[in-house]
Amino acid sequence: MPNKLTQDAVLFCNKGAKTSILKVTSQSFCRAANKLVATEKDKQPEINIPNFWSCSITQSSCNPAPIKWKKTAEKDAINNFKILTDASTCQCATGGKITVQYKGHDEIHEIN
């Protein structure tokens, strides 16, 4: 079962040079392990998804361009936005694929 993503989840882009830390701004009241739960709305470049340092496609600094989160929770939502899980991925308009390396918390909060 997938686990909810929270503030401080570690993200990885297969075209980036470093990992990035997710910041949740889509909501301020739903928590797991005392951290804000992430939703599909958390995809703003440099606000929710900081850059991955450099991009192997452009051969220059990374300018994240997230398109849409996929593999979100099927049934769970916050403010009508689907919850992100450790299985979620996000395509970058530049060509990279953003995946989750760490869900952001140590407690298990499974999504049914």
Automatic annotation (TrEMBL):
Pfam families reported in the protein's UniProt record: DUF4280 (PF14107)
InterPro entries: DUF4280
Superkingdom: Bacteria
The protein's name in its UniProt record: DUF4280 domain-containing protein
Organism, as annotated: Flavobacterium psychroterrae
